Amino acid sequence: MKSLLLIFTALSFFGAFNRGVLAVGTAVGVVYLGLRGWSMGRLPLIGPHDTVAFFAVSLGVMGLAISLSPSLRRAGWFNAGAGIMAGLFGGLALIFPARDMPMPAILDTLWFELHVVLAFFAYALFGIGALVSGGWLATRDRSLMDIQFKAALAGWSFFSASMISGGIWGYYAWGTYWLWTPKELWTSILWLFYALLLHLRLKGAKWEVASAWSAIFGFAVTLFTYLGVSLLMKSSHSF
């Protein structure tokens, strides 16, 4: 079954040159996640292999969705960027061993699954928004900043819902909505960062350069919140 993830990774890289190939690769990634979840009787959301694979496929899905915008339908650079990003994280997921374990009791709740799925949708949108911002810095096409704003707003909305569902899961798991762990602190930093980014965009065209660079930096903060904290710091959210 892991060969499907390898196919997804390869097609994502080849999809950098063709949107149709990227779409096929993303479909293969969705099938991989579905089959893996079906075989285990749960969503594949535990451990670095599953979460990185889910993130990679989410990048493909969000990239394809945003590529339907009129300004991006003929933008080869965007398709290339989305495909390479999805392929890189698909390749990273292959490095980690898959954990075929039942869902631990503390995680066996809809609130946990909703919390994680929404978070990865947000992460993917933040990544695609950073890509669009890079395109704007290169082309100065004003329509791209509108797309970046919509991607950031949708991502921030998903992330807000993820934090709410995570709080409810925390209450059922530990009897409190909030634990002062590094992951939760960085989650709050990321949420506030994108809230400020959205307000910055509303200040007008003279702030577009700052907004674009902030979106790129924001994806770096996103990756540290997801991977850096999980791998480097002890937390209830660590791998």
TrEMBL record:
<keyword id="KW-0201">Cytochrome c-type biogenesis</keyword>
<feature type="transmembrane region" description="Helical">
    <location>
        <begin position="209"/>
        <end position="233"/>
    </location>
</feature>
<protein>
    <submittedName>
        <fullName>Cytochrome c biogenesis protein CcsA</fullName>
    </submittedName>
</protein>
<feature type="transmembrane region" description="Helical">
    <location>
        <begin position="185"/>
        <end position="202"/>
    </location>
</feature>
<keyword id="KW-1133">Transmembrane helix</keyword>
<keyword id="KW-0472">Membrane</keyword>
<feature type="transmembrane region" description="Helical">
    <location>
        <begin position="116"/>
        <end position="139"/>
    </location>
</feature>
<dbReference type="InterPro" id="IPR045062">
    <property type="entry name" value="Cyt_c_biogenesis_CcsA/CcmC"/>
</dbReference>
<dbReference type="InterPro" id="IPR002541">
    <property type="entry name" value="Cyt_c_assembly"/>
</dbReference>
<feature type="transmembrane region" description="Helical">
    <location>
        <begin position="47"/>
        <end position="68"/>
    </location>
</feature>
<dbReference type="Pfam" id="PF01578">
    <property type="entry name" value="Cytochrom_C_asm"/>
</dbReference>
<keyword id="KW-0812">Transmembrane</keyword>
<feature type="domain" description="Cytochrome c assembly protein">
    <location>
        <begin position="52"/>
        <end position="234"/>
    </location>
</feature>
<feature type="transmembrane region" description="Helical">
    <location>
        <begin position="75"/>
        <end position="96"/>
    </location>
</feature>
<feature type="transmembrane region" description="Helical">
    <location>
        <begin position="151"/>
        <end position="173"/>
    </location>
</feature>
